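Sample pair:
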Amino acid sequence: MLDSSKKQYPPLPLIQTWIWMMTQSGDADIQQKGQNNLIASFGSLAKANEYLVNHNQN
């Protein structure tokens, strides 16, 4: 049974794609979409960064 109390985040490759979109795409619309996706999934860019830092320690 799934633990519904634990927040489910998107797969790491998808998160990395959104970060690429936001930082390296060179297209303002794509950059905004990447940022919007991260914020929608994590609530803020700071929370997304915190997740990545913690995930990379494992």
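The mean pLDDT is 89.
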